Amino acid sequence: MNKINLRQRRVLLLLHLIFASIMLGGQATFIILALTASTTDSAATLHICYYVMHLLADSSVRASTIGTTVTGILLSVLTSWGLFRYYWLIAKEALTLLTIVIGFVGLYEWTLRGVRRSASPALNPWAEPGFTVNHTWLWIGILLQTISLVLMFILSVWKPGGKVKPRGAR
């Protein structure tokens, strides 16, 4: 496959950084909303927090995850980096798979359950054991997702580990 020129590479890298920034900003929003949901006494506020988190999980989280993944793959295959030539890239790919699963499945499902269970302002969702378990899983997902994204940013800047050695090489 032909490699891309410097201008094309810069445009692709810019798109990759924009999508990754949207992902990180979304995570910051998730943290704020989950903290608010954890500490509020208002059933309406709790429901709105879950509603907005679900809206984010169903829109910007999905779009930015797809955008970052596609541009990352294109940057790897259309430049000299390759998909499996460097240890830091392999680590980013593994973390990307984790963020896809957490974002597309976990955050979406946990927020949807929270929206459904907090929909009735007459009931106290915190009194229901399933709600507390779901909220705990949501927090675990948010923290894992945030740690994964921060690690991917760190790997992109420092590029540790060097090049993968070919089989048979010492």
Comma- or semicolon-separated keywords:
170 residues, mainly alpha, elongated
Distance between the termini: 29 Å
Based on DSSP secondary structure assignment, what is the total number of beta strands? 0
Largest sheet: number of strands, sense, barrel closure:
none
Order of helices and strands: HHHHH
Q: Mean pLDDT across all residues, rounded?
A: 95
Shape: elongated
Please tell me how large the radius of gyration is. Answer: 19 Å
Strand content: under 5%
Give the domain tally: 1
Stretches with pLDDT under 50, minimum 5 residues: none
* Number of H- or I-type helical stretches: 5
Helix- and strand-based class?
mainly alpha
Percentage of helical residues? over 70%
Keywords: Membrane, Transmembrane, Transmembrane helix
Protein name: DUF2269 family protein
Describe this structure in words.
The protein has 170 residues and is mainly alpha-helical. It has one domain (6-158). It contains five helices and no strands. α1 packs antiparallel against α2 and α2 (43-58) crosses α4 (87-117). The longest helix is centred in the N-terminal third of the chain and has 34 residues, at 6-39. It starts with 5 loop residues before the first helix and ends in a 12-residue tail after the last helix.
